[in-house]
Amino acid sequence: MALYGKPVRALMWEMVGDLKTKKGDVITREQVLEWFAEHYPKVKEGTIGAHLIRLSTNARSRHHYEAKPKDDDLFYQIDGSRFRLYDPEQDPQPLYEQTPPFGQSAAEEAEDSEPPGEFAYEADLRNYLAKNLALLEPGLKLYGEEGISGIEFPAGGRFIDILAVDSRTGYVIIELKVSRGYDRVVGQLLRYMAWVEKNHADPGQPVRGFIVARGISEDLILACSRVSTITLFEYALSVQVRKVDR
C-alpha cells in the first residue's frame, strides 16, 4: 500500500515537475534523495533507488521491477548516480526484457561450459532461488513493494542478489556464487546487511545474511564462525533421464 496515497513512481513524476526538470538537465541521486526527504520522508532510500532503476529506460535490471511502457519511461541513466529525462527522439528504445551479459554474444554464451552440477550463470541460480526460497528456509519470501522485487535490489550503488523477508518479517540478504565461495564474500555481504539495516529496515527489524555457493571453502567457514547472523549453504544439481517409449 502506498504510504502517501500515491505510488512512488507517481511521486517521481511529481518530483520532475516540481524541480522544473527540462530535456537535457541532469539530476543526481542525491538530489532525488533530498527531494524525497523534504516532501515524502517516509519513503525509504532502497525504495527510491529501486524506482530510479525501474524508471530508467536503459537500466538492465528494470525488467525485475515490472516496468511498464510509457508509464515508467521517465529517465535515461547516465551512470550510477546521474540521470536525465528520457528523450525518445535520440535515446535507444526502452528496455523491458532481460538482456545478455555485457560483452558476451549469444554464441559465446553457448560455448561457455560449466562443470556438471553448476549453474551456467549467477543469474540462473538467482532466478531459480528467487522462485524457490523455501528451499533455504520455510516461510522465506522474495521482498516486494509497489512492483519492486528483491531481485538485484539496489544498495548504495551496488546490487543485492536477492533481498528476502522471513516469516518474522526480518530481512535476509542472499549472496550467490555459482562456483566456490571464499572468505572475501563475507565483507561484501556484511556491507549489504549494514546498508539495509541503516537505509531500508525499520528500527529493530532484524537483518540476516545467507551465502549460497556450489562449494564453501574452509576459509569461509572459519570467517563466518564469528558472525552468528550469516548462514552458509551449498547447492547441488541433479539430472534424471528416462527413456521415452514410442
Cα-atom radius of gyration:
20 Å
Structural class: alpha+beta
- The second-level CATH architecture of the largest domain is 3-Layer(aba) Sandwich
List the secondary-structure elements in sequence, H or E.
HEHHEEHHEEEEEEHEHE
Task: Round the mean pLDDT to the nearest integer and report it.
Answer: 88
Basic shape: globular
Biggest beta-sheet profile: 6 strands, mixed
Which regions have little confidence, pLDDT < 50, spanning 5+ residues?
101-116
Q: Regarding CATH, which class of the largest domain? A: Alpha Beta
**How many domains is the backbone divided into?**
2
**Strands, total number:** 11
- Helix count from the secondary structure assignment: 7
What is the percent of helical residues? Answer: 25-40%
What are the defining features of this structure?
2 domains; 11 strands; 246 residues; alpha+beta; Trna Endonuclease, Chain: A, domain 1; 3-stranded antiparallel beta sheet
Secondary-structure blueprint:
Layout: H1 8-18, E1 26-28, H2 29-39, H3 45-54, E2 75-77, E3 82-85, H4 106-111, H5 122-131, E4 141-142, E5 144-145, E6 148-149, E7 151-155, E8 158-165, E9 171-181, H6 185-199, E10 207-216, H7 218-224, E11 230-234
Parallel strand pairs: 9-10, 10-11
Antiparallel strand pairs: 1-3, 2-3, 4-8, 5-6, 7-8, 8-9
Helix pairs in contact: 2-3
Structural account:
The structure is a single chain. With 246 residues, this protein is of the alpha+beta class. It has two domains: 78 residues; 125 residues, Trna Endonuclease, Chain: A, domain 1, CATH 3.40.1350.10. 28% of the residues lie in helices and 22% in strands. The strands form three sheets. Strands 4, 7, 8, 9, 10 and 11 form a six-stranded mixed beta sheet that branches. It has a three-stranded antiparallel beta sheet with strand order 1-3-2. A two-stranded antiparallel ribbon has the order 5-6. The protein is globular. About 7% of the residues have low confidence.
